[in-house]
């Protein structure tokens, strides 16, 4: 991908407006952090971006409308990782990760592409799951499940990687490696990252751009440092967020 | 290495299936020696048909029955495994979702009313059974979905039970007013393979080969469904189309099975559960293994049905339902424990 253009995006579910008239542009090499209080519409935006939820307005990837792509084509361009469970069947970690290759399988019998084994092995290594690859996904901890979901999405290898609260359940060392992974991802030509983040310090530190949502509307959009100003955060949360973050960081001085 | 293991599994399963076929051919009210059975089969295959009593019993009576048991077992087990994958629920099955009972009602209605509803070479009873199977599934799932968007186990099971009771009441009503036309209520609720013939084998084979093939081609997609519909959609699956195709195939398979063997319950619940313990949940292995496992399971159940209290014959559903009830409780208990852990 080169550019993602979102214009006049609105999402309505059962008569309620969840997102109103959002417009922004994302280029290759960008990392967009979507931030905002609970219920601001962050996850809704992610679901609209990957085509799972119907949306009004237009989403264009390199000039092509998302709505005009087949589900299969879309799944080779955009991948979303979120907080979903793995059902009740005891698939192994490797089996679940391998399912990420489905968009690349061909023919009636869904024959895997030659790069499949390598892609699976790489995704397992990147998420530190190689040792767990034969474990049942039903026996994993929350953090391990989160890494399996991430590995599946990496295996899908979408140029536009969407991560909805990717550091949930992760301990600090895996949080660090996740941020590093996303940073490397966006630096590959033709790739970009969008993440929903609650950790505003991480958003300022790693993301190139930020979109501040509140009540389904955009309060600020731009380079992360310009969008996440003290006053904008105060407006979104109704409390002095920046002051709180400084106070928390101060304890380590 | 991995391929060698898969090959070994397939070979072992095929051997086990053939052995079961031979066992079921040899054992019965008239025991037939293994060597005699092989001789008769060989002469039938080479075209030199024998017409002694032994050959008559084997080829006319026992072979169609054993083959029907195998084909119905394979069809019902495959259907069960597919439903479970689609609905992410190990308790989903033709008998818990009302598909089988709906098909029974359909077949009975067709016989009583004498509607003529021929479609190609299919008999009225088969066509109406398939139709009712589809309507029942749509009805049960529709109501379940309206009551509870997440299609939770409790909702589905409760509705399935209520629907099953409603159908057996309606069947009893039909039978009361139909006089001699309709076979006993036992046939439609518990099934029997006592009166199958060559035509039944052809019908079952004609349904299983194309529909089973179609379902097997969906193995990869069912894996994605088993993790969740939204995940499947994100990975490029056309969720609604796949669901419609799979459900329709399952209803057709169940309808054909019921029109031949009556309402044989719980086969699609028992086999996939057992098979999953051996080959794991991946549908590429699960579906073919279920087809063979189901064939073996139902052949053995039928063998038990016709030999345990010989010369009296048990309805085959008595055996499958007793085993099915135990497995159902075991599965439900395990799910309960999993929920407590989570």
Please describe what this structure looks like.
Chain A has 253 residues and is an alpha/beta fold. In chain A, 36% of the residues lie in helices and 25% in strands. Chain A has ten helices and ten strands. Chain A has helices at 42-49, 71-77, 93-98, 116-126, 142-156, 172-187, 200-206, 224-227, 230-237, 241-250; strands at residues 3-13, 16-27, 31-35, 56-61, 64-65, 78-81, 160-164, 192-196, 209-214, 217-223. In chain A, helix 6 (172-187) links the parallel strand 7 (160-164) and strand 8 (192-196). Chain A is globular, with a radius of gyration of 19 Å. Chain B has helices at residues 2-26, 34-45, 53-87, 99-113, 124-147, 153-178, 185-190, 198-216, 219-227, 229-234, 239-261, 267-279, 283-307, 316-341. Chain B is globular. The mean pLDDT of chain B is 86. Chain A binds chain B through residues 50, 52, 70-76, 79-80, 84-92, 95-96, 99-100, 102-103, 105, 108-110, 138, 156, and chain B through 85, 88-90, 217, 219-221, 223-224, 226-228, 230-231, 233-238, 276, 280-282, 335, 338.
CATH architecture of chain A: 3-Layer(aba) Sandwich
What does the average pLDDT of chain A come to? 93
- Largest beta-sheet details of chain B: none
CATH topology-level fold name of chain A: Rossmann fold
CATH fold field value of chain B: ABC transporter involved in vitamin B12 uptake, BtuC
What is the helix content of chain B? over 70%
